[in-house]
Each structure stands twice: as structure tokens, then as C-alpha cells.
Amino acid sequence: MSDSTGVTVRPKGEVADTNRLQGRDGGQADGYIRTIEWDMMNKAKFFPLSMLSSFSVRCCLFPLTVIKTQLQVQHKSDVYKGMIDCAMKIYRTEGMPGLYRGFWISSVQIVSGVFYISTYEGVRHILNDLGAGHRVKALIGGGCASLVGQTIIVPFDVISQHAMVLGMSVHAGSKADMNPLGIKSWPGRSRLHISMDIGREIMRRDGLRGFYRGYTASLMAYVPNSAMWWAFYHLYQDELYRISPYWVSHLFIQCVAGSLGGFTTTILTNPLDIVRARLQVHRLDSMGVAFRELWNEEKLNCFFKGLSARLVQSAAFSFSIILGYETIKRIAVDEQYKHLIRW
Fold first, then answer.
1. Per-residue pLDDT, 253
2. Is this prediction's pTM over 0.90?
3. Is there a contact between 332 and 45 (Cβ–Cβ < 8 Å)?
4. Which of 44, 49, 160, 196 is within CB 3.0–4.6 Å of 328 for a Cys-Cys bond?
5. CA 157 – CA 216 distance, rounded (Å)
């Protein structure tokens, strides 16, 4: 049956069936629910808290995204020698605002995040009814969620990345063209005006297609990344549950599993993410051109370019996102399941 908010409420007698399902699908022999499913939560609590958590994490960790992007689009190491050098140069010339270039336009990802997590949980729920295992559910759900999320966010990502690299012109000098759109960004000019100019210039040059430049590369980078991340998250979570003492916090295990999943997928997908960034910023014609240019410049180093920044960013994001996500699920879970949840 359903309550007034439309959330499915199961009678108390069905809790035993839930425990049996959780035991088959990644649960624990001690009777606690390990994975809080979609139909166990109050959505009126979950969605607002999820958006707040996502925005908070983005506020704290966005500088890592700026650093990663600037490292990826530079030619070899002409501008920055590494992650710390990049951060220091940006801070010296622009202060903290330089580390938040493109932040507000990128924050639209909070909205796409709602569609992302709804798709992920919805697909998992459907696959659960079909009897799929929890790792298969995570793999397929993560891929579908990224497909939906990227379709919404790519236009804003294109604008945001152009804004991020504008400050590189100060450090690059004549070594590289970091302002292919010719945007005026003198000191004191508002980020809003710069973002609007970027959007207008993309529309003038390429039309609506310009806002989806690198869309295929984004799908090729992020759909496998998301699918593998959720699959590895559950894989590492299962192994950590198996080897950890009983008294270890479930939430801590999940956060560590998220970080390990982030490390693994980042290493596997790093070249694809560099190609995506270069397609969107350097305005290259195709993924083939971007791959050839990257290989000619970097050779085998293309597998490691900007990797340190991506690893730090991925581990920090993964830990923080899982901390917020799993905490909010525990807060939003229906009362009848609260006694079955361990922190």
C-alpha cells in the first residue's frame, strides 16, 4: 500500500521477506539491511537532502575540477609541472576566485544529479524485480544513470570548461591558445557576463550543436566510468564487509569502498576523459583527431596526464558523495526499516 506521499509502505509482516531478499542480494547474516532500496525511502526527504549534499560537496571540491581540467588541456607540461604547481599559479594570479572559475554554471549539475540518482535507483528497482544480482544492478543502473545525466549536463559542461581554462592564458603566454572563442576576460569582469559571452559565441559559431561538442566522448568516458564505479563500489563493499570486524561502521566501509571504486575507474578511463576535455575546449573536429593529437604529443604519457589530479579528485568526490548519499538514505528510510539499519 502507499502513504499520502506516494511512498510504498510494507506491512510489518513483510520485513522478514525484505531481510531474506537483502541476504540474497548483498545483505548480512546478522540480519541488518546492507543496501537501502528505492522503495524503502521517503522521497520527500531524500531529494532535497540529496541536492543539498551534492551542492556542499561541489563547493568544497570544485577547485580540484578546475586544476584537473587545466592540466588535461595543456600541451605536454608547457604551463604547469603538476597539480600543486597548477594550484599555486592559479592562486597567485587570481586568488580563490580563479579556483572557482565556471562554478555557478557547473552547479546546474545538481539538477542533473537528481535525474542521475533517480535513474540509477529506478533501474536497480526494475532489475531487482527481474531477479538480477546487486553487482549487475549496479553496473547497468550506473551506465543508464550517466547516459541521462550527461544528456542534460553536457551543454553546461562545455560552457564551464571554457570558463575554467580562460585563466590559463596568463600562464601559457604564447605557448598555447587557451581562449579559442576570443572571450574578453579582463580583471573585475563578472563570471556571469563571461559565461553569457561564452554561450553566445558558441551559438554564433556552431549553433545548438556547439553545446553538444564532445557529447559522444562524454558518453564514452562517463557511461563506462559510472557503470564500473557502481559495480566496483559494491564489489569492494562486499569484500570489506567480509574481512572487517563486526564493530566497524557500515557507513565507513561504504565510504572506503567508494574511494577504492573511484581510484579503479579513474585509472581505467583517464585517456577518454582527456579526449573529452580537449574536444570541448580546443574545438577539435572528432574523437579520432583528438586521440591522434594526444598520442602525438604525449605517447604513453597520455595514460597518466592529469592522473594525479583526477585520482585526488575522484577519491575525495567518491568518499564525500557516498558519505552524503548513504547518510541521507539512512535519514530518509521509512520508520519500519530503521531498526534494520546500522550506521
1. 92
2. no
3. yes
4. 49
5. 13
